[in-house]
Amino acid sequence: MLKKEMEAFMARVGLLLWSVLLGLSVSTLPAIAQPWTITVTTNADVVNDPWTDCPPPGNNDCSLREAILVANFNGAPGDTIVFDASLDGTTITLNLGSLWIGNETNTTIDAWALNTGITINANGEQYPIVLDTSGITIQGPITITNAGAGGVAVVINTSAAAATLDGITVTGNPNVGIGVDSPANVTTITNVTVTNNGGAGISLYGSASTTQISNCTVSNNGGTGIYVAPQNVTIQNCTINNNSNGGISIAASSGLVQIQNSALDGNTGGSAIFSLADVYVSLSTITNNPVGGITLQGNVGGSIIQSNIDISNNGLGIFIGNATGSVDISLNTINNNGGAGVSVRDSSDINIQSNIITSNGQDGISSGVIVVGASSNITIYGNSITGNGGNGVTVIEDFATDTAPQGVRIHLNTINNNGFLAGDGVGIQIAGAVTGVDPSLCVGVGAGGSVSISANSIYQNAAQGILIERTPAGSNGPQNVCIGIDPVNGGPQNFIYNNAQEGVLLRDPGTSNNIVANSYIGTP
């Protein structure tokens, strides 16, 4: 939360604590040697006589607020607060402000023994649950709902190192569900359900060093499902769906964020995963997101998108734009996206390898893979690129900025059956001023700037197998494209056959210094 808001909140907490402890000096507080197990026996939100009601064995009038107060100030870290079985299924409606858990460390609030659990109705309190010292655990089933406008239902503050939320539900709050603000050590959020909140479901901000989120459901929130600003975050075995501002959004300040074994479906207003930092996405399904699947921009060097089961969305499957640093996209199934399967714009050092890229371009014009603008050192290797609505692979100048890719290697792919309509779908299209710094020799991929097309099987596409052209009129055509000569491996051949039009077509003024060699064109 914002600093001024937190200061105001802590001032309110301080007044409440002093009113409760009025007349009870520090010297008269009970001093104990061992942690207590404190049993909550009423769902009323009251503070009557906590030091009589709550210490073991307690009586029938210990409220949750009183239990927390006693755990905060009884002088023994490690207290456990449990609930009497008679409270199972009841609601605690807050009337006296936030529940602040602080001062003493390692407090646990544990509702695990209840079948239905406890509901905490925040009754409009902005920050109903605040964790403010280290080692706090909240174990559900506990539901937190109806926080105040502009607040956060559950706050883990900077001082709450090594906090754990396990088995809680955060729903029906007008702003953020769970907010984590820069605690040290590991924050664990597991088995949580965060739904139908007005803002982000889970927001990690500040400079929190390590957060682990697992076995979660984050859905139908009005903002981003999970917002990540700090470093070293792991999101595992989560379902993140139908959020209104994208599924997971990762800020530029983040270090490596790992997303594994998760399902991101139906998130609107942004990509399922949008990242301005390095990210590792694996073994996940990313489907039916209207804007697109995965977007990487900025300093994303070291990012890996690997072994994902299904990337199929209404927009682009994977978009890499204005990215710096290496990105590896490998062993994924990228299919049935409305736009291109993989789109690379103005980015360098991108490896697209061993993917199944099929049936993309449901709009009828987009490619399986497209590389555009000031992109360089791009490898498209060992992929199956089939049945896409437009071209299989497009490498094209950005005509608005007069920038074109250099150093593209298209090697050992199967590229077939692209183009929904007859004459509309090329296996590989190289268009515009795609050229290298040495226009006369096909050597030195990357350093020499050449485009090489080698060892591919290119067949049964709706138009040409390979098209090298200038478009639109007035642009230079491609130069230094090597078809059948691989500067890295010494020239393995292409198989180009049974395409609806020419096997290889080079056309237009300005298209020059290209080489076709060592390829089978016609009948395999």
What would your notes on this structure say?
The protein has 524 residues and is mainly beta. Among the domains are: 175-187 and 199-337, Single-stranded right-handed beta-helix, Pectin lyase-like (Pectate Lyase C-like, 3 Solenoid); 339-524. It has three helices and 49 strands. The protein starts with a helix and ends with a strand.
How is the secondary structure organized here?
Elements: H1 3-21, E1 37-40, H2 50-53, H3 64-73, E2 80-83, E3 91-93, E4 99-101, E5 108-110, E6 118-121, E7 129-131, E8 137-145, E9 152-156, E10 164-171, E11 176-181, E12 186-190, E13 193-195, E14 202-205, E15 210-214, E16 217-219, E17 226-228, E18 233-236, E19 239-241, E20 248-250, E21 257-260, E22 263-265, E23 273-275, E24 279-282, E25 285-287, E26 292-299, E27 303-306, E28 310-312, E29 316-324, E30 327-330, E31 333-335, E32 342-345, E33 348-353, E34 356-358, E35 369-372, E36 376-381, E37 384-386, E38 393-396, E39 406-411, E40 414-416, E41 428-431, E42 451-454, E43 457-459, E44 466-469, E45 481-483, E46 495-497, E47 504-506, E48 515-516, E49 520-522
Parallel strand pairs: 1-2, 2-5, 3-6, 4-7, 5-8, 6-8, 7-9, 8-10, 9-11, 10-12, 10-13, 11-14, 12-15, 13-16, 14-17, 15-18, 16-19, 17-20, 18-21, 19-22, 20-23, 21-24, 22-25, 23-26, 24-27, 25-28, 26-29, 27-30, 29-32, 30-33, 31-34, 32-35, 33-36, 34-37, 35-38, 36-39, 37-40, 38-41, 39-42, 40-43, ...
